[in-house]
Design goal:
five-stranded mixed beta sheet; 2 domains; alpha+beta; 18 helices; globular; binds zinc ion; about 550 residues; binds ligand 9MR; single chain; Glycosyltransferase; Immunoglobulin-like
Amino acid sequence: MGRFLVNRVGYAAGQPKFVYSLDPLQGARVMSEDATVLLTAGEKNVEMRYEQEMHTAIYRWDVSELRREERYRVSRGDEDDTLRVARDPFREVFRLAMRSYYLQRCGQAIDDRESGVQHAACHLALATTVEEGETRDVSGGWHDAGDYGRYMPTAGVTVGQLLLLLVLVPELVQYCDLGTREAEKSGISDVLAEVRYELDWMLRMQRSDGGVYHKVSTERFPGMIMPEADDGRLWVYSVATPDTAVFAAAMARASRVFQAVDARFASQCLAAADAAWKFLKSHEPMLHPKNGFTGSYLTKSDADERLWAAAELFLSTREQEFQEYLRQQWDAMFSGQAVLVPINWEDVSTMAVLALALEDGVDVALQEKAKQSLIVSAEHLVSRINRHPFGCALLPGEYRWASAKTALAYGVNLAAAHYLTKRPEFLLGAVRQWDYVLGCNPLGRSWVTGTGPDSPQHPHHRYVVASGIMIPGLLVGGPNAQAHQQDGIVPETVGPLAYVDDERAYAVNEPAIDYNAPLVVLAGYLHGVLGQGRENGGNVND
Ligand code: 9MR
Ligand code: ZN
């Protein structure tokens, strides 16, 4: 008999709760801590659906009646599992996932009592630009992933998403204390201080003509060593237009967010965004930066990045030029698109939709288009979710590199549509993506580090491997049908099962800053709407 497949972090007290299994559930029981039987699985509360890719039945037991905050036991024969119902499981994950950015900081020593993460300052040497052969200070920012590179495409899309929280859950951005003591040093909330750390690095990556460099890294990936031991020569790779455009978008958005707390910094961001836009206007797409042998974030078109930049620049400046650009480009980008592209570094078009749909300012006709795309997309996602045995919005072909991020990105689409419409099916759909990533999946595993024994213990992460210390709150890529050909470690199998918890398995078990972004946004939103967000006013500590 298989095991129970449940959300490993726990279900929110007032929300629907499901126990899944690959075997019939009849006779399974939920007991309270003192062994009183509270629920028994039977015909009335168990449903069966087929998983298309696994060609197998999945059983789903509705245990929503459990509302008391407690650790329950689920058992059947000699199988035994824990099922947790908590007041606000979203808060805990938000906190860990947001803190993980702090723990990924480059260029400063880290000594975090809470997690034990500790290392000396790293990557402070001046870097050489590959094209111009000049030296530059590009220190700071977050390490991108399990490697120590710092890349503009993921930086831009991550910062952009984290700043969406100001609209969706303003109190988190304004007051959040992550126990990193950054607020004490900077006078702004820990979330803003964290985002600012990345923005400061991004600003160092802009050339005087407004163009923005693609990435900084050593020429090749280092071995599994500590960041401060990674002292190979640092290279700054070419200026490229997609990078310049996501930079412009993120900076323009940051200028709105920081206006209230640090007006000088806000104008610095806006000036940088403006300069980047000027560069874009005078340059055709430049899509082939020199790239060395580290992370490859090359994209086929910069139209989506430019569109997002125009949207953010318009909202920050209200200058007609940007609105004109949006009017001209909008339909070409979105017509015929029923489901919006799940936000990702390669295609950021959905960021433009979110910007215009969630904030006023653009003309009503254009805003209406953005709102409609968001809502129609969410409706399509709900029907996918209703067909899927685990309520996951991924299509059969979408179990590719970073599928866990893709599921959460659909969750962000649903959350934003819920914010606009308050339609309960959108909120439920968002919660289903959350459940999927935390254990309601065929492997019963959570893909967020630090969320218990069924979460990744061996992520592909240089610091974690070298130090033996876990960074909690990191989302790994999750199931990937092609991983076998990519990292050679994951066995060849159907998409939903293609995962192993192995530090060599970089195509399924590596985290990245852009994977964590939708996790933070979704956790933050659910905390605000379903958890204690409203009462706590941004306090996420115990
Ligand atoms: O997340 C990226 C994924 O979308 C790509 O398919 C994959 C292959 O290009 O690369 C992933 O990004 C990795 C990057 O290239 C280097 N740093 C680690 C990233 C996460 O694995
Ligand atoms: Zn570093």
